[in-house]
Amino acid sequence: MEVFPEKAASYFSTAGDLQTLVRLARDFGPLESFYVKEYTGKLFLILKGNAKLRTVLTGPRYGVENAKILSMGLGYKGAVDSIRGGGILTAVLVSVVDVLTEVLSDHPSLTRLIGTLAVDVAKVAIGAGAGFAAVSLLYGAGAVGASFALGPLAVAVIVGFAVGMALDYLDDRYKLKERCTTMLRDVIAVAARKVEDAKAAAGQAVDDAKEGMLEAAARMAGAVLHEVVDEAGRRFVRYVSRGVERLVWFPMPRY
Predict the structure, then answer these.
(1) pLDDT value at position 255?
(2) 37: part of which helix (H) or strand (E)?
(3) For residue 129, what are the domain limits?
(4) Helix/strand/coil for 47
Protein backbone atom coordinates (compact mmCIF):
# COMPACT_ATOMS: atom_id res chain seq x y z
CA MET A 1 0.00 0.00 0.00
CA GLU A 2 1.10 3.54 -0.62
CA VAL A 3 1.96 5.79 2.30
CA PHE A 4 -0.08 8.85 3.10
CA PRO A 5 2.19 11.47 1.41
CA GLU A 6 1.87 9.66 -1.92
CA LYS A 7 -1.93 9.53 -1.62
CA ALA A 8 -2.07 13.17 -0.62
CA ALA A 9 0.08 14.20 -3.59
CA SER A 10 -2.14 12.22 -5.98
CA TYR A 11 -5.29 14.04 -4.87
CA PHE A 12 -3.79 17.46 -4.16
CA SER A 13 -5.09 19.01 -7.38
CA THR A 14 -8.52 17.39 -7.00
CA ALA A 15 -8.78 18.74 -3.47
CA GLY A 16 -7.93 22.22 -4.74
CA ASP A 17 -10.60 22.02 -7.46
CA LEU A 18 -13.12 20.76 -4.93
CA GLN A 19 -12.36 23.70 -2.65
CA THR A 20 -12.87 26.10 -5.58
CA LEU A 21 -16.09 24.32 -6.46
CA VAL A 22 -17.43 24.75 -2.93
CA ARG A 23 -16.55 28.45 -2.89
CA LEU A 24 -18.27 29.03 -6.23
CA ALA A 25 -21.29 26.97 -5.22
CA ARG A 26 -21.79 29.28 -2.28
CA ASP A 27 -21.89 32.23 -4.67
CA PHE A 28 -23.91 30.79 -7.52
CA GLY A 29 -25.99 28.06 -6.04
CA PRO A 30 -25.89 24.62 -7.69
CA LEU A 31 -28.08 25.56 -10.67
CA GLU A 32 -26.78 29.04 -11.44
CA SER A 33 -26.49 29.21 -15.24
CA PHE A 34 -24.37 31.15 -17.65
CA TYR A 35 -24.15 31.67 -21.35
CA VAL A 36 -21.50 32.82 -23.80
CA LYS A 37 -22.11 35.89 -25.94
CA GLU A 38 -19.94 37.70 -28.46
CA TYR A 39 -19.24 41.43 -28.12
CA THR A 40 -17.03 43.27 -30.60
CA GLY A 41 -15.51 40.07 -31.80
CA LYS A 42 -14.73 38.73 -28.31
CA LEU A 43 -16.47 36.03 -26.31
CA PHE A 44 -17.79 36.82 -22.85
CA LEU A 45 -19.16 34.66 -20.10
CA ILE A 46 -22.46 36.16 -18.93
CA LEU A 47 -23.33 35.20 -15.36
CA LYS A 48 -26.94 35.20 -14.28
CA GLY A 49 -28.24 35.84 -10.82
CA ASN A 50 -27.70 38.62 -8.33
CA ALA A 51 -24.07 39.75 -8.67
CA LYS A 52 -24.25 41.61 -5.33
CA LEU A 53 -24.62 38.33 -3.48
CA ARG A 54 -21.43 36.90 -4.90
CA THR A 55 -18.09 37.02 -3.12
CA VAL A 56 -15.84 35.48 -5.77
CA LEU A 57 -17.05 36.69 -9.17
CA THR A 58 -18.80 39.96 -8.47
CA GLY A 59 -19.19 41.17 -12.06
CA PRO A 60 -22.05 40.38 -14.46
CA ARG A 61 -19.74 39.24 -17.27
CA TYR A 62 -16.16 38.18 -17.87
CA GLY A 63 -14.14 37.45 -20.99
CA VAL A 64 -13.63 33.75 -21.54
CA GLU A 65 -9.88 34.37 -21.47
CA ASN A 66 -10.09 36.31 -18.21
CA ALA A 67 -7.49 35.05 -15.75
CA LYS A 68 -10.01 34.89 -12.93
CA ILE A 69 -12.43 32.81 -14.99
CA LEU A 70 -9.67 30.41 -16.05
CA SER A 71 -8.28 30.14 -12.53
CA MET A 72 -11.72 29.23 -11.20
CA GLY A 73 -12.23 26.59 -13.88
CA LEU A 74 -15.48 28.09 -15.13
CA GLY A 75 -16.72 27.15 -18.57
CA TYR A 76 -15.17 24.66 -20.95
CA LYS A 77 -11.81 26.38 -21.39
CA GLY A 78 -11.50 27.11 -17.69
CA ALA A 79 -12.19 23.47 -16.84
CA VAL A 80 -9.72 22.23 -19.47
CA ASP A 81 -7.02 24.60 -18.21
CA SER A 82 -7.75 23.46 -14.66
CA ILE A 83 -7.38 19.82 -15.71
CA ARG A 84 -4.13 20.50 -17.57
CA GLY A 85 -2.59 22.60 -14.81
CA GLY A 86 -3.76 20.22 -12.10
CA GLY A 87 -2.36 17.24 -13.98
CA ILE A 88 1.06 18.86 -14.33
CA LEU A 89 1.10 19.93 -10.68
CA THR A 90 0.03 16.48 -9.51
CA ALA A 91 2.67 14.76 -11.66
CA VAL A 92 5.38 17.01 -10.21
CA LEU A 93 4.22 16.50 -6.62
CA VAL A 94 3.90 12.73 -7.02
CA SER A 95 7.36 12.53 -8.61
CA VAL A 96 8.93 14.54 -5.78
CA VAL A 97 7.25 12.36 -3.14
CA ASP A 98 8.30 9.16 -4.95
CA VAL A 99 11.92 10.31 -5.17
CA LEU A 100 12.05 11.36 -1.51
CA THR A 101 10.38 8.13 -0.39
CA GLU A 102 12.89 6.03 -2.32
CA VAL A 103 15.92 8.05 -1.24
CA LEU A 104 14.91 7.85 2.44
CA SER A 105 14.16 4.12 2.30
CA ASP A 106 16.50 1.58 3.90
CA HIS A 107 17.51 0.07 0.57
CA PRO A 108 17.11 2.64 -2.25
CA SER A 109 16.69 1.17 -5.71
CA LEU A 110 16.84 3.09 -8.98
CA THR A 111 14.88 0.35 -10.73
CA ARG A 112 12.09 0.49 -8.14
CA LEU A 113 12.02 4.30 -8.36
CA ILE A 114 11.66 4.20 -12.15
CA GLY A 115 8.86 1.63 -11.90
CA THR A 116 7.03 3.67 -9.26
CA LEU A 117 7.35 6.90 -11.24
CA ALA A 118 6.17 5.22 -14.43
CA VAL A 119 2.99 3.90 -12.79
CA ASP A 120 2.20 7.08 -10.81
CA VAL A 121 2.72 9.44 -13.76
CA ALA A 122 0.66 7.13 -15.97
CA LYS A 123 -2.16 7.22 -13.42
CA VAL A 124 -2.07 11.03 -13.38
CA ALA A 125 -2.13 11.17 -17.19
CA ILE A 126 -5.04 8.71 -17.41
CA GLY A 127 -7.02 10.64 -14.78
CA ALA A 128 -6.45 13.95 -16.55
CA GLY A 129 -7.33 12.40 -19.91
CA ALA A 130 -10.56 10.97 -18.51
CA GLY A 131 -11.53 14.35 -17.05
CA PHE A 132 -10.80 16.11 -20.31
CA ALA A 133 -12.82 13.55 -22.29
CA ALA A 134 -15.77 13.86 -19.93
CA VAL A 135 -15.79 17.67 -20.07
CA SER A 136 -15.44 17.61 -23.86
CA LEU A 137 -18.34 15.19 -24.24
CA LEU A 138 -20.48 17.20 -21.83
CA TYR A 139 -19.77 20.51 -23.53
CA GLY A 140 -19.72 19.20 -27.10
CA ALA A 141 -23.00 17.34 -26.75
CA GLY A 142 -24.71 20.42 -25.31
CA ALA A 143 -25.76 18.47 -22.24
CA VAL A 144 -27.73 20.16 -19.49
CA GLY A 145 -24.71 20.23 -17.18
CA ALA A 146 -22.81 22.35 -19.70
CA SER A 147 -25.30 25.19 -19.24
CA PHE A 148 -24.33 25.68 -15.61
CA ALA A 149 -21.32 27.70 -14.57
CA LEU A 150 -20.10 24.93 -12.28
CA GLY A 151 -20.92 22.11 -14.71
CA PRO A 152 -17.59 21.52 -16.46
CA LEU A 153 -15.52 21.96 -13.29
CA ALA A 154 -17.85 19.69 -11.32
CA VAL A 155 -17.59 17.00 -13.99
CA ALA A 156 -13.80 17.30 -14.04
CA VAL A 157 -13.62 16.95 -10.24
CA ILE A 158 -16.03 13.99 -10.08
CA VAL A 159 -14.51 12.09 -13.00
CA GLY A 160 -10.94 12.82 -11.93
CA PHE A 161 -11.60 11.64 -8.38
CA ALA A 162 -13.47 8.51 -9.51
CA VAL A 163 -10.82 7.52 -12.05
CA GLY A 164 -8.05 8.21 -9.53
CA MET A 165 -9.71 5.96 -6.95
CA ALA A 166 -10.22 3.22 -9.54
CA LEU A 167 -6.58 3.39 -10.64
CA ASP A 168 -5.37 3.31 -7.04
CA TYR A 169 -7.51 0.23 -6.43
CA LEU A 170 -6.11 -1.50 -9.53
CA ASP A 171 -2.58 -0.54 -8.51
CA ASP A 172 -3.03 -1.98 -5.02
CA ARG A 173 -5.01 -5.00 -6.20
CA TYR A 174 -2.67 -6.11 -8.99
CA LYS A 175 0.60 -4.70 -7.60
CA LEU A 176 1.28 -2.72 -10.75
CA LYS A 177 4.35 -0.96 -9.36
CA GLU A 178 5.92 -4.20 -8.19
CA ARG A 179 5.22 -5.81 -11.58
CA CYS A 180 6.64 -2.83 -13.43
CA THR A 181 9.76 -2.94 -11.23
CA THR A 182 10.16 -6.68 -11.83
CA MET A 183 9.75 -6.18 -15.57
CA LEU A 184 12.41 -3.45 -15.56
CA ARG A 185 14.79 -5.67 -13.62
CA ASP A 186 14.25 -8.49 -16.11
CA VAL A 187 14.82 -6.14 -19.04
CA ILE A 188 17.99 -4.77 -17.44
CA ALA A 189 19.21 -8.30 -16.68
CA VAL A 190 18.59 -9.41 -20.28
CA ALA A 191 20.34 -6.31 -21.59
CA ALA A 192 23.30 -6.94 -19.26
CA ARG A 193 23.54 -10.56 -20.45
CA LYS A 194 23.46 -9.43 -24.07
CA VAL A 195 26.24 -6.93 -23.37
CA GLU A 196 28.33 -9.63 -21.71
CA ASP A 197 27.63 -12.01 -24.60
CA ALA A 198 28.63 -9.31 -27.06
CA LYS A 199 31.85 -8.68 -25.13
CA ALA A 200 32.60 -12.41 -25.03
CA ALA A 201 31.88 -12.73 -28.76
CA ALA A 202 34.12 -9.77 -29.50
CA GLY A 203 36.88 -11.22 -27.32
CA GLN A 204 36.52 -14.60 -29.04
CA ALA A 205 36.69 -12.92 -32.42
CA VAL A 206 39.89 -11.15 -31.39
CA ASP A 207 41.33 -14.40 -30.08
CA ASP A 208 40.36 -16.19 -33.30
CA ALA A 209 41.94 -13.42 -35.32
CA LYS A 210 45.13 -13.67 -33.28
CA GLU A 211 45.18 -17.44 -33.71
CA GLY A 212 44.59 -17.07 -37.43
CA MET A 213 47.42 -14.59 -37.71
CA LEU A 214 49.75 -16.86 -35.74
CA GLU A 215 48.81 -19.87 -37.85
CA ALA A 216 49.36 -17.89 -41.03
CA ALA A 217 52.72 -16.65 -39.74
CA ALA A 218 53.67 -20.20 -38.74
CA ARG A 219 52.69 -21.55 -42.17
CA MET A 220 54.69 -18.79 -43.87
CA ALA A 221 57.67 -19.40 -41.63
CA GLY A 222 57.42 -23.15 -42.29
CA ALA A 223 57.30 -22.60 -46.03
CA VAL A 224 60.33 -20.29 -45.90
CA LEU A 225 62.23 -22.73 -43.68
CA HIS A 226 61.36 -25.57 -46.06
CA GLU A 227 62.72 -23.61 -49.01
CA VAL A 228 65.87 -22.76 -47.06
CA VAL A 229 66.41 -26.41 -46.10
CA ASP A 230 65.81 -27.56 -49.67
CA GLU A 231 68.20 -25.00 -51.07
CA ALA A 232 70.78 -25.83 -48.43
CA GLY A 233 70.41 -29.55 -49.29
CA ARG A 234 70.81 -28.90 -52.99
CA ARG A 235 73.90 -26.81 -52.45
CA PHE A 236 75.35 -29.42 -50.12
CA VAL A 237 74.81 -32.15 -52.72
CA ARG A 238 76.40 -30.02 -55.44
CA TYR A 239 79.35 -29.28 -53.19
CA VAL A 240 79.85 -32.99 -52.38
CA SER A 241 79.44 -33.94 -56.05
CA ARG A 242 82.14 -31.54 -57.13
CA GLY A 243 84.43 -32.84 -54.43
CA VAL A 244 83.89 -36.43 -55.55
CA GLU A 245 84.52 -35.46 -59.19
CA ARG A 246 87.87 -34.02 -58.26
CA LEU A 247 88.75 -37.24 -56.50
CA VAL A 248 87.61 -39.78 -59.12
CA TRP A 249 87.69 -37.67 -62.31
CA PHE A 250 84.15 -38.91 -63.10
CA PRO A 251 81.22 -36.59 -63.90
CA MET A 252 78.46 -36.81 -61.21
CA PRO A 253 74.74 -36.09 -61.86
CA ARG A 254 73.74 -32.49 -61.26
CA TYR A 255 71.05 -31.39 -58.79
Answers:
(1) 46
(2) strand 34-39
(3) 4-174
(4) strand
